[in-house]
């Protein structure tokens, strides 16, 4: 059971307090988008063994969605940050690069 | 025979005798005995039968690794199957019974399986599944069913109490041997909060049995002093009888404490499940001795060498008068010394190695015990008990050189570190050539949240089998620097791996060499699997069932792996291990459930009128965590009769429905209208204040997920009704989009579901009732259909919504939850003269189905779009965007070639089976019948006095009048005509009066 710190209320929340919400930083494609764009938005989700950016909701706490950067293989957490962010914050990216020199970066 | 020795026994209290029974036979033991030691003291070596061949099984081990000696423990409601006698503490009145035999332990019919062993090879189950079905059904299954299964499941509810507890610490030490105690002492000295768990009832582990001297004194002294020191420290918690079952993410550890297993019925919880968060975990879990694979190594009386010495030293039990030792290492010589000291005979030590002259070997020789090098056991003689061994050269093929009479064999194939907890959360192993064992790889530990090592293994669990290395290792792992206590341990020479005895054994011998005692997997089975192409250890495990019994292969895995590697001609580390999964030993389901049983299994949501329903003949229906009245029965009435009465009365007079469970979400703010236009398929921003509109919600895929009536409360406020089951989900869905996509929009949502009681007043007399209650104008002119108004009714503040889910004149009245019951009772009292009756959810369903209204979850299943349900009118064509719009534009959803909603009317008036499917001609690519429709809702209509149904039918609305055939489960078909789904009041006149 993971522990992730909620960036809103500061609680170090156990996984039972949280709801998972799959990949973070998806760009929504609505009406007017091509089939390929819509397919990539709806279905082509990343599932890496390694560095991943995820959505989590502090469901049984403050109710806020937040984002987490962690390693799916080792469970190392590089940081959590508010959901109102369209790309990973620079300090978290720097931390990941320091911990994972071979990381391919945000794609 | 096995018996109690006259002297010794460091764990027993000879002054306190306990009587117990085994298979009804009265026996006696002492306080401090395990059930296994007490059985051996009563010469009960035969304790069970193996799973497949029903071979006689004796006690092999002395701890958690025991594969054979499992019993049905207790009686009646306290019966527990598969309890390990080696970890069961004896208590007065204990009743145990052996398992997996018929009719008796001594004479077992299933042993015929043994005679036909060659017909039950590895992969037997897989192979028989491939036989013709009839052979399985009539030939194999009855035989296997009759003889399979270990213990009996209890048939009564568990009378015991279980509890769960939480704990947090800086360091969790698992294992209370000298390594764990030293690690705890070192860490606690720095002020760290330390918890130490020991699975047995005693501290100290193996060191006191193994003659280890610490600071010049027997290990017992150091153990007692260290435990005393730890007990005195406020930052240390010590727990005996507490087994760490699993290590999980970020330092989460589950442990099961056997609180009152040994004192049943004393009022304490039977078990306590600890949920521990540890910043760091040290596993000081020791090592488990491996059996040696030789023919007949499963005959009762063949035991692990360490177990033999445990029984002698700890419990003063002699497993036999003449104990042959067979080994590939020096450690087993300790057993020879212990047997000799107890006044028993060691006819010979058979050492598979070609050299042996370590301190222990020399000591044994000096005691006059014969030590034979390059020797092994060709075959154990005996049936239900060892009677002797045939000796051979380990290097040979099994030619018998000598025979030795004996009644016990103590075997040692080396030691495997207990790496389970290390491995549960990703710790990796390396192969230690010197010990021929996997041990934790310190370079690849399990990682915690900050990328640092979460677990450290110390002592024997870390592959250090010499006591003098163990304490230094513990101090290092616990972050200490001081010198370790001085440990005296004899020097031991290297072990030599023996994976088969003798190394060139014939096929006949290999077929009698057991690897997995409980599941009856032999060397020959693993070799057969390898020949049949099973190269992966995970596949071989499942094919042969090696290591899949209740002991999870604690004794068998490494030997089996080595045999597989040998067959594949591959190095052992290349073949790899199977996955270690929690729990380390079985955990009782009761402990996992804890207090969450009976009434508090899960929370129960009650509407404000719950108790009134309870008092008035309710028959409950669970709806999520809510209880809703399904119907209210009168004396002598069936549920079906009650539903009919309630439907007819609502249509003809007046019905009252508790609709409080409907979701009520307030959406407010400058951007609320814009937001709701994205949430719903139709336009909500244009809804005038005071009006209601039926709305549909889809997910981004385009599929229908919820529906309900939206009311505009004020200029910037909307009230969204959701389905009863949907309130939390829809509220979360709204928040998701607001927080994560349109976070700059100024919108606030609140789930007010439980703040209001909602009561539907339904039927021709609905208006008359509200007028009688008085307080607000509910006339058609003041409050037309699909409008709402605020006021008071019966003196209670109320909102009246003119909406109808029944097709009748209907008002849904929302009042503050605290006044819900008062309002309900006011309606009941005032409604008497109008013939008012409450109705439940089933009548609600029938009423809505008669009107062709869809129900989320009945007509929808996550693959249905609004257009499939003829609800295209509620999907805006004008809006540029809403959730699901892009999804619905995909060709297969936009196509007319879909299953669509229709009514279904049976030709004979009967009720269609729910979920029935209409076949279509031909077969699909999988060779299954094609289908063309299915029933989604089906009821008997008391109004129309016949069966009515709705269904989704391929191009259904284009096929009005066509007759479909729906097969019934038990044969025959029901014919139904495709009709308009609105069966009652097609023009909608009754609701708009
Ligand atoms: Zn929070």
Automatic annotation (TrEMBL), chain A:
Biological process according to GO: tetrahydrofolate metabolic process
Gene3D superfamilies assigned: Folate-binding superfamily (3.30.2270.10)
Lineage: superkingdom: Bacteria
One example GO MF annotation: sarcosine oxidase activity
Protein name: Heterotetrameric sarcosine oxidase delta subunit
Organism, scientific name: Cereibacter ovatus
TrEMBL record, chain B:
SUPFAM superfamilies recorded: Aminomethyltransferase beta-barrel domain (SSF101790), FAD/NAD(P)-binding domain (SSF51905), Folate-binding domain (SSF103025)
Span of domain SoxA A3: 512-594
Aminomethyltransferase C-terminal domain: residues covered: 900-985
Example GO biological process: tetrahydrofolate metabolic process
PANTHER family per the UniProt record, alphabetical: AMINOMETHYLTRANSFERASE, AMINOMETHYLTRANSFERASE, MITOCHONDRIAL
GO molecular function (one): sarcosine oxidase activity
Sequence ranges assigned to domain GCVT N-terminal in this UniProt record: 609-879
Residue ranges of every copy of the FAD/NAD(P)-binding domain listed in the record: 170-421
Descriptive protein name: Heterotetrameric sarcosine oxidase alpha subunit
InterPro entries: 2Fe-2S-bd_N, FAD/NAD-bd_sf, FAD/NAD-binding_dom, GcvT/YgfZ/DmdA, GcvT/YgfZ_C, GcvT_C, GCVT_N, Sarcosine_oxidase_asu
Record key words, sorted: Oxidoreductase
Family: Belongs to the GcvT family.
């Amino acid at each position: 059971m993971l522990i992730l710190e909620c960036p809103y209320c500061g609680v170090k929340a156990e996984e039972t307090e949280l709801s998972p919400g799959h990949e973070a930083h998806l760009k929504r494609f609505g009406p007017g988008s091509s089939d390929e764009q819509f397919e990539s938005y709806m279905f082509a989700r990343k599932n890496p063994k390694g560095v991943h950016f995820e959505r989590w909701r502090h469901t049984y706490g403050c109710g806020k969605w937040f984002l987490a950067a962690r390693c799916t293989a080792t469970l190392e957490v590089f940081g959590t940050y508010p959901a109102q962010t369209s790309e990973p914050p620079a300090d978290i990216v720097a931390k990941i690069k320091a911990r994972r020199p071979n990381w391919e970066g945000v794609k | 025979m096995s018996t109690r020795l006259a002297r010794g026994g460091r764990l027993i209290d000879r002054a306190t005798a306990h009587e117990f029974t085994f298979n009804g036979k009265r026996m006696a033991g002492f306080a401090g005995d395990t059930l296994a030691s007490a059985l051996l003291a009563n010469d009960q070596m035969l304790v069970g039968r193996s799973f497949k061949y029903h071979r006689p099984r004796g006690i092999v081990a002395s701890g958690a690794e025991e594969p054979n000696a499992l019993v049905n423990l207790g009686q009646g409601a306290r019966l527990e199957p598969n309890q390990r006698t080696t970890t069961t503490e004896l208590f007065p009145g204990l009743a145990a019974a052996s398992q997996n035999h018929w009719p008796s332990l001594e004479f077992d019919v299933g042993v015929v399986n043994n005679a036909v062993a060659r017909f039950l090879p590895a992969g037997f189950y897989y192979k028989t599944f491939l036989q013709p079905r009839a052979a399985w059904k009539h030939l194999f299954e009855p035989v296997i069913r009759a003889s399979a299964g270990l213990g009996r499941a209890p048939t009564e509810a568990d009378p015991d109490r279980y509890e769960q507890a939480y704990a947090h610490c800086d360091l969790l030490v698992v294992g209370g041997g000298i390594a764990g105690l030293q690690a705890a002492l070192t860490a606690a000295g720095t002020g760290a909060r330390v918890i130490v768990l020991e699975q047995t009832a005693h501290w100290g582990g193996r060191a006191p049995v193994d003659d280890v001297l610490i600071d010049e004194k027997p290990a017992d002294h150091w153990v007692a002093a260290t435990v005393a020191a730890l007990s005195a420290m406020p930052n240390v918690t010590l727990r005996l009888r507490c087994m760490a079952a699993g290590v999980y993410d970020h330092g989460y550890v589950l442990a099961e404490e056997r609180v009152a297993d040994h004192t049943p019925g004393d009022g304490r919880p039977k078990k306590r499940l600890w949920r521990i968060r540890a910043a760091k975990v040290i596993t000081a879990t020791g090592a488990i001795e491996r059996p040696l694979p030789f023919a007949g190594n499963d005959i009762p009386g063949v035991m692990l060498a360490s177990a033999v010495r445990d029984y002698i030293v700890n419990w003063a039990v002699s497993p036999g008068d003449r104990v042959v030792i067979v080994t590939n290492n020096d450690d087993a010589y300790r057993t020879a010394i212990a047997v000799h000291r107890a006044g028993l005979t060691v006819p010979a030590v058979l050492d598979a190695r070609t050299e042996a002259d370590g301190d222990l070997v020399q000591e044994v020789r000096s005691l006059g015990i014969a030590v034979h090098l390059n020797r092994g056991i060709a075959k154990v003689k005996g049936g239900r008990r060892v009677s002797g061994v045939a000796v051979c050269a380990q290097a040979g093929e099994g030619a018998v050189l000598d025979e030795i009479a004996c009644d016990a064999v103590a075997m040692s194939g080396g030691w495997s570190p207990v790496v389970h907890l290390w491995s549960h959360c990703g710790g990796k192993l390396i192969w230690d050539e010197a010990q021929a064992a996997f041990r934790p790889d310190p370079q690849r530990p399990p990682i915690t949240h900050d990328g640092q090592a979460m677990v450290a293994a110390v002592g024997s669990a870390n592959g250090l089998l010499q006591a003098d290395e163990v304490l230094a290792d513990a101090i290092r792992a616990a972050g200490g620097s001081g010198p370790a206590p001085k440990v005296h341990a004899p020097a031991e020479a290297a072990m030599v791996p023996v994976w088969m005895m003798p190394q060139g054994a014939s096929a006949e011998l290999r077929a009698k060499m057991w690897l997995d005692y409980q599941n009856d997997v032999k060397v020959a089975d693993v070799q057969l699997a390898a020949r049949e192409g099973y190269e992966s250890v995970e596949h071989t495990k499942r094919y042969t069932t090696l290591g899949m019994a209740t002991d999870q292969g604690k004794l068998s895995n490494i030997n089996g792996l080595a045999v597989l590697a040998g067959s594949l001609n591959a190095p052992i580390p290349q073949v790899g291990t199977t996955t270690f999964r929690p729990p380390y030993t079985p955990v009782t389901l009761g402990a996992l459930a804890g207090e969450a049983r009976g009434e508090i299994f899960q929370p129960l949501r009650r509407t404000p009128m719950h108790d009134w329903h309870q008092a008035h003949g309710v028959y409950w229906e669970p709806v999520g965590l809510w209880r809703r009245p399904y119907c209210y029965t009168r004396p002598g009435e069936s549920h079906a009769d009650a539903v009919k009465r309630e439907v007819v009365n609502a249509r003809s007079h007046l019905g009252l429905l508790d609709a409080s469970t409907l979701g009520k979400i307030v959406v407010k703010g400058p951007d609320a209208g814009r937001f709701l236009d994205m949430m719903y398929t139709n336009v909500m921003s244009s809804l005038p204040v005071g009006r209601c509109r039926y709305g549909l919600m889809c997910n981004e895929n385009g599929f229908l997920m919820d529906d309900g009536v939206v009311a505009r409360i004020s200029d910037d406020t909307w009230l969204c009704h959701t389905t009863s089951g949907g309130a939390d989900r829809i509220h979360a869905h709204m928040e998701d989009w607001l927080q994560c996509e349109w976070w700059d929009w100024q919108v606030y949502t609140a789930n007010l579901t439980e703040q209001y009681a909602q009561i539907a007043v339904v039927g021709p007399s609905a208006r008359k009732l509200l007028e009688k209650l008085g307080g607000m104008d509910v006339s058609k002119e003041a409050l037309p259909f699909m409008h709402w108004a605020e006021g008071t009714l019966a003196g209670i503040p109320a909102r009246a919504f003119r909406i109808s889910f029944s097709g009748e004149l209907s008002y849904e009245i929302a009042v503050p939850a605290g006044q819900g019951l008062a309002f309900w009772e006011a309606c009941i009292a005032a409604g008497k003269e109008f013939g008012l009756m409450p109705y439940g959810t089933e009548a609600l369903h029938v009423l809505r189905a008669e009107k062709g209204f869809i129900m989320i979850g009945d007509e929808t299943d996550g693959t249905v779009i609004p257009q499939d349900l003829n609800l295209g009118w509620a999907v805006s064509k004008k809006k540029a965007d809403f959730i699901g719009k892009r999804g619905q534009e995909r060709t297969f959803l936009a196509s007319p070639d879909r299953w669509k909603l229709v009514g279904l009317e049976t030709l004979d008036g009967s009720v269609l089976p729910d979920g029935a499917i209409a076949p279509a001609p031909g077969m699909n690519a999988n060779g299954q019948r094609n289908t063309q429709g299915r029933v989604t809702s089906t009821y008997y209509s008391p109004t129309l006095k016949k069966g009515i149904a709705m269904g989704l039918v391929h191009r259904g609305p284009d096929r009005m009048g066509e007759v479909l055939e729906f097969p019934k489960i038990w044969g025959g078909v029901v014919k139904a005509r495709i009709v308009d789904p609105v069966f009652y009041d097609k023009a909608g006149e009754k609701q708009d009066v």
